[in-house]
Amino acid sequence: MIIFLLILFGFIGGIFGGMGMGGGTMLIPLLTIFLNFSQKVSQGFNIFSFLFMAIFALIIHFKNKLVDIKSVIPIVLSGLLFSMGGAFLATLVDGKILKLIFGIFLILLAVIEIFKLFKKNKINN
């Protein structure tokens, strides 16, 4: 049963990751809620699986000419720097606090997207 859920969660995370939305947005909550993995272990699974998902998604995005390399360089460089800092901080912070921070982050994203949807609908009406 666990193998089936891992494959299913990988499928869901891969779909979201392939669309550029970040597979971890789904994968981390799925692993913590349904398989009772700790937040830190779920983040580790997500980072490892992301490497492989990102390679294939990037190939497709390059093929479709959806990547502007000049614009991406500053994002990549700052992302590398701050991901090292974030990984270091994650090792120092308790898993329950990480779970809370991640949950608040997801709620904020949802609220922002809802407001954007209402604003867009208001403009179109």
Overview of the structural elements:
The protein has 125 residues and is mainly alpha-helical. The chain has one domain. Helices cover 86% and strands 0% of the residues. The protein is built from five helices and no strands. Helix 2 (24-34) runs antiparallel to helix 3. The chain starts with a helix and ends with a helix. The mean pLDDT is 88.
Short description:
This protein is mainly alpha-helical and 125 residues long. It has one domain (2-124).
Biggest sheet layout: none
Q: Tell me the total number of β-strands.
A: 0
Beta fraction:
under 5%
Per the principal axes of the C-alpha atoms, what is the gross shape?
globular
Rg over alpha carbons: 17 Å
Mean pLDDT: 88
Counted by DSSP, the helix tally is 5
Structural class: mainly alpha
Keywords, separated by commas or semicolons:
125 residues; mainly alpha; 5 helices; 86% helix; globular
Helices, strands, pairings?
Blueprint: H1 2-18, H2 24-34, H3 39-63, H4 69-92, H5 95-124
Helix pairs in contact: 1-2, 1-3, 2-3
